[in-house]
Amino acid sequence: MTEDDDATLVRRCREGDRTAFEQLVVRYQKPVFNAALRLLRDPEDAKDVAQTTFLKVYEHIGDYNPSFKFYSWIYRIAINESLNALGSRKPCEGFNGGEADAAPGPERQLEGQQTGRAIEEALMLIKPELRTVIVLRHFMHLSYQDMARSSCCPRKP
């Protein structure tokens, strides 16, 4: 996947090509869902956020500035929608351990669940804006430059 591919698909979307939009959805549905899931910790809420994200992308594709990477733009929308969802719900429930270490052995699985629970609990204790930075860097593996674009923050040299 190259940025040129995204630019071509976006251009085709702007020209009314629905199959181009479908290709963008297929390309980004998993990363958008995963970003939302990391912030929300609820698969159903993450699905809702992903759906809303793609609806907004479709509605505002004309506003996208092609001088920036498309995935930074779509991640920013997903993060904003996730933060909106976080702000509108009650305090979070416990971590379900669904992302535990998949290595064999019950001891290793329990250790992975405990570690995952501790990480999720620690993440939920910090402000959503700070949590976003951690998720973008350590879970989504974005560069600092891409994080700055996704967060609408300038990157300092």
Describe this structure in words.
The protein contains seven helices and no strands. 24% of the residues are buried. With 157 residues, the protein is mainly α. The two termini are 28 Å apart.
Concise synopsis of the structure shown:
The chain has 157 residues and is mainly alpha-helical. The chain has helices spanning 3-14, 18-40, 43-59, 70-87, 106-125, 128-139, 144-151.
Main beta-sheet strand count, sense and barrel state: none
* Average pLDDT number: 79
Beta-strand portion reads under 5%
Poorly predicted runs are: none
Count of DSSP E strands?
0
Task: Please compute the radius of gyration using only Cα atoms.
Answer: 17 Å
What's the layout of helices and strands?
Elements: H1 3-14, H2 18-40, H3 43-59, H4 70-87, H5 106-125, H6 128-139, H7 144-151
Helix pairs in contact: 1-2, 2-3, 2-4, 3-4, 4-7
